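Honest question from a wet-lab person: if I give you the sequences of every part of a complex, can you actually get the arrangement of the whole thing, not just the pieces? Trying it with mine:
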Amino acid sequence: MNDIVYASATRIAQAIRHKEISAEEVVQAHLDRIGQVNGALNAVVQLCADRAVSEAKAADEALARGDSVGPLHGVPMTLKDSLDTEGIISTGGTKGRESFVPSEDSVVAARLRAAGAILLGKTNTPEFTLAGETDNLIYGRTNNPYNRDRIPGGSSGGAAAIIASGGSPLDMGSDTGGSIRMPAHFCGIAGLKPNTGRVPRTGHIVPYGMGAVDALTQNGPMARYVEDLALTLPIISGPDWRDPAIVPMRLRDPADVSMEGLRIAMHTDNGIKTPTPETQEAVRSAARALEDMGAVLEEVTPDALEMIPDITPNLNGGDGRAWVRRLLDRAGTTEISPFLQNRFDSAEPISTERFSQTLELLDQYRSRMLGFMEDYDAILCPTAAIAACPHGETWSDENKSAFTYTGAYNMTGWPGAVVRGGTSLDGMPIGVQAVSRPWREDVALAIASRLESALGGWQKPEL
Amino acid sequence: MDEINYASAKTIAQAIRDKEVSAVEVVEAHLQRIDEVNPKLNAVVHLAADRALSEAREADAATARGESKGPLHGVPMTVKDSHDAEGLVSTGGTKGRENFVPDRDATTVARMRAAGAIVLGKTNTPELTLAFETDNLIYGRTNNPYGLDRTPGGSSGGAGAIIASGGSPLDLGTDTGGSVRVPAGFCGIAGLKPTSGRVPRTGHIISHSLGATDALTTVGPMARYVEDLILVYPIIAGPDGEDPAIVPMPVDDPANIDLKSLRVAWFTDVGDVTSTAEIASATQSAADALTDAGASLTEDMPSAILRATGTSLLTADGGAGVRRILDKAGTTEMHPWVGRFVEGTDPLPVGEYSALLEEIDAFRSNMLGFMENYDAILLPVRPFPAPPHGKSMTPEFSPGNTFTSSFNTTGWPGAVVRAGTSPEGLPIGVQFIARPWHEDVSLALAAVVESALGGWQMPSI
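Yes, you can. This is the full assembly:
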């Protein structure tokens, strides 16, 4: 049963339900795998092995009794350390919370556990999730399983690294500018940023209630297989009566989406940063695969993307990052990580008049993008301009605009799914991104699923 | 056919469909009524009589051929002057647009016309819709049909006044702080502010894409009868491909609401802002009517409402957002009611401004927590009836703003219906606030109270 650590969560859940394998065996196999790889990765930063084994035994007993069980009954998972987990240290990567043990689960954690999932431990995040690499003053740096000298990406880098390596089938990332999709891309797994308003942020270190930047942040699933994103999205979605941005919009089933006649706008260059040739080729091969399935591809870049460089710095830094300062104060953090210090150093406060105008520009960007989408069901594009770079290089002048491919859709609020679609010259995974119309996660997931079948998706790292 | 002026839009549409009356007769009757009452009211500020008659003749010809444009085929309506109307001067109450003739309809106007409605004219609004009374430098002041020395409320005061008087069965109001609900309340008609994200603002003077204040503004129907709100609201709801805030949420039918399952919180006072005895009593009567219909009523108030901060957003940036709208309109001379937003207000420091946006989210979260236990809230539209002209923005009356503006900040739906009469003979309106996206609940409750307490009553104008 070695291959259980490479199976999908969907398959694991089925095997446990059919008693082909016990939850305890599954949990133990994953704890063993974490033990093997985590020394090299530093991805899992808190383990709750005893609780996990005890919950697994209880899960097996429930099945033996014939109790009705949830869709994730007995399935192990890890959770990004930016999510509160009851009884388990939850730092959000910030010193002020180095020893913080929440008394209740974040809504996402609670819903997954109620569906039967068993938490193995917490995965590493940069401070407050606000970086494209995964390193912090508490737990240090996480490495990429395909090359330890490279970043796993961020901010859900611990999640991506441990999932790619078979230490966990499932994690919940969060994505304010690409923090689910970029690590999924850098580590060759699948990830979904749901639509703005889909999943409550209650109990996340960057919670609901963030005002100007509130709509940017989403929680969403990460897994090796697209089917697991589709399995978990309904479990974590819907109002919790605390996060005021959540809309009770019904979810549709990706299985009902046909590629036949689906209109997809494809671009390989957003006009801000030209991707590597292999990145562009991965998008082109994805486009050809979808065309073979009957989709109608058109190479066209939304004009409105040109607005991004004018909006992003003012939206995130225009208030001098007072919003980050408030997060720090709330966490009780005084010593901050170099990544976050860089954020403060690079912020240029603007006048209140320009700040309120920036919020209008963001809306105008959203309106223009919506107009573009009137003719298309989806956009196929790179996730980032580069594959995983060496540690510490995401802030370089050369790379800093390489990550605008994801932020474009935090600004629109639309769903975006990533799946591996290629490999760089030096052997690093390359993910392609499928973005759909608002509230149509089903379309983004259906495209990602078809691309996974056509292009192979996740591949096992030599670790 | 005099009573056609006091019929519901739904009845009118049916009568036209059944050829009991022609669209031309209906339009003529309404134009005639506007002629009778408008000199006293100054509610309709631009008439499109010729076009309306021509469209009515086309509608009758289509009916004769067995064709229909839609559920409002041949039904007359007026349109608040803050909406662009193709071919008709559309000022938004601001001098820079005194002669502005749009070349396309606002999304909501286009949808109403596509459904068969015929635009009679435009109704008055204060400049940029930003006041709770209706007066501007272009067209002057609108009066309340139940007391000409009283305000009809604002900003959809022209709509409220002309509908109450039988000059129009329908109008499209807009509501940033109460601008559908307040004139509906003061003029004794019905009105609906839909959930934020329901109805596109494309082509409205306070349009989409307004950043921090964007979610406050919604477009909603006004009519004498709740059944007309129910008829019109699905016609104007849904994405238009331009307004990025609009959510493609399905619209549910109020007819499917089981009143016995509804838990309704109700209150009449917000802290020391207390309702008049008659308004408290009208609210009590509405609560009793809902109890009689099987709903569970509890006297309870969300405590967060005492700390509502929403409308301070308009001045928090020193009025820069309002100034940008004025600049876009080309307005240099402004009404004092708009001046109060842009003159002499210093912006908050930018870090405090972003903190204010977070406070507003916290307010929304606290209010949402209250709604976990209730399906709806019943409260007065204002703790007082229509004030004399010029008083609404004074310290005597402005504390009442929170009764409506709190629910622009939450973004929830609110329907208004008349529930009583003040000692001066002025209408008293109550509102039914529901959970987000549950206009069906607001409308179902409003229909019960309309039926129990009588709703709109004819003014002696």
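Two things worth pointing out. The mean pLDDT of chain A is 97. The first helix of chain A runs from residue 9 to 17.
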